[in-house]
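Render this sequence as a predicted structure.
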Amino acid sequence: MGELLGKVLVVDDDEVIRQLIAVNLTLEGFQVETAFDGQNCLDRVMDVKPDVITLDVMMPRMDGWMTASRLRSDDSTSHIKVVLITARAQEEDKRRGLGIGADAYLTKPFDPAELIQVVRDLAVSARGG
């Protein structure tokens, strides 16, 4: 096994999607932790210290928009790269996501290879590569 590519926190309320993303990233060489919604993500982010967070938008308790905003507004998490993943493909949603500081925006159903590439690129830049 090669060098660890980085640490990713996968946040999705759908267990199947969460596991799909986690397995794909783990096979690619990332250390992966998971959270089941936005609040769980915020509760865990300081312990996990991820390079990248993949964040589902539509979740109970706290959605991806609010979670991304919270991550961005806190100095201790504002540097973490955020990938929003959503079934909402409207241009307006994309603008909103990038407006709150998401680093990338993928729409469901997403191509796992594309997700891996996006996360890899962000992890490299997060580590100053």
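Summary. Residues 112-126 form the longest helix (15 residues). The CA atoms of residues 44 and 124 lie 22 Å apart.
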